[in-house]
Design a protein that fits this description.
502 residues, alpha/beta, 3 domains, five-stranded mixed beta sheet, two-stranded antiparallel ribbon, 51% helix, 7% strand, disordered N terminus, binds zinc ion
Amino acid sequence: MTKTQVNDFDIDEIDRYHGNLSTPHIKEPVPRLITDILNSYTRNEINLQPDYQRQFVWNKTKQKQLIKSLYAGFPLPMFYFAESGNNSYEVVDGQQRLTTIFGFLNPKSINKHIRKKIISKIQLNHNGDQIKLNDLRQTIEKRNIYCVYLPETSVNLKYEIFRVLNQGATMLKPQEIRNCLFASEMPKFNKLLKTVANKLRKITGMTLDRMLGEELALRFFVINKYGYERDITDLSNNFNMLKKDFNEREIKRMKQKSELFFWILKKMFESDIDDCFQVLQKGVKSPKINKWGFYSFSKKINQSLFHLLSFYLPKYSKNQLNGKNFIGIKKGYLEILKNQRFVSVITGSGTNSKRNIKKSNQIFKKVFLEKYLGDWTDNQKRNITKSEKETIRQNVPYCYLCYGKFGKKMETGKIHAEHIEPYIAGKESELENILLAHPRCNAEKKDMSIDEYRVTPKSQKRRKTQKKNIMAYRQALKEWNKAYGLDIYSKLMKFAKSDINL
Ligand SMILES: [Zn+2]
């Protein structure tokens, strides 16, 4: 495995979040001795890295300059702390500076993952004489810094101050801003994002810092929940939707999905898993032998590959994949990385255009998935038993695609049952997420999404004909959802409601 430092990701985003600043009651700044602050920190009263803070990013030159200015007695800009109960504080602004100071004065007090980035020794001269390290430390300990303490009230205020202050020198990346929001508004989802981000760091061997890991994790969840249709970067429009949709049940489901995803990746790539989201290096002549180790990879995560794997792999179940030839699958994956047409739509500019996304999906499905992993829907149809269908039929006797009621003459065995959302391994016999459809409606839909199918003239015509059933269908769906849960319940209800006016 090769360790790579990846700080940038080829996604262009602009920060479109507009927060509202409430009127705060902030006390005047107070001077405090650095030694006192350090003592509070070693007593665990100061949280240097609350969830919304980014990691330590200062380079050694910057750290050295700070120590120098402290020694020279230059006043520093204010430090902001937020009270977080029990006489403890979160650092809202000043994380980089405090990490530098604490690290210099007491390296052991710093988290060991960050410790290697800090400077603990420094050579300074005063009138031609080198200053002893101990003297330097003692001088700095006696310096005052100015601290503003924010009351333990509004998370928004903390966040807002953090955002405003950070518009200075080192701008926050959008994911870092999202991170503050998730940490305060969706703590459980935030925890899952961090878990997945850390797994991604582990398998790729990349640092994925400045929240890039969390960014990828978020992309995984959004693409699995909404497909390719949503632009999650516009948080001001989508945050409330995410907050509503990623409820406790959904978080649990998504967690299972991510676990399945990592399970498949490990099976597929084994010890080469660190290359799994990379394209082949450009300009390097491909060897003739189809052996993974002979190829050079780009050393950078390719966004489209990440999306494709995130979206399609968790559609399969463990059962479906267990017997597969994973050596063959890995070879197949190498093949698609050599496919010129595929590479041209997933690299360079315009990879996010609708046309290119569609094209890359088509090729990925045809040249790789169907050929080497098989049809993920196979298993789903087989696993729904007749008695399960009966149960659903008794409760929701309507085709979810056209609202038509299944007549008495229609045999249950002929009705098509579909997992509306691909089910997750280990949950196969549950009725969760299954609905019934006419075989003809289902055949028309084929592998379109519901959204795609709904706009076809055929579907519109069918729904119009069966309009009279909508109210009863909605009622049945409501009851059914109470008992078994449907992940796209609100979507189906909304569709049905809008169809009343067809
Ligand atoms: Zn139908």
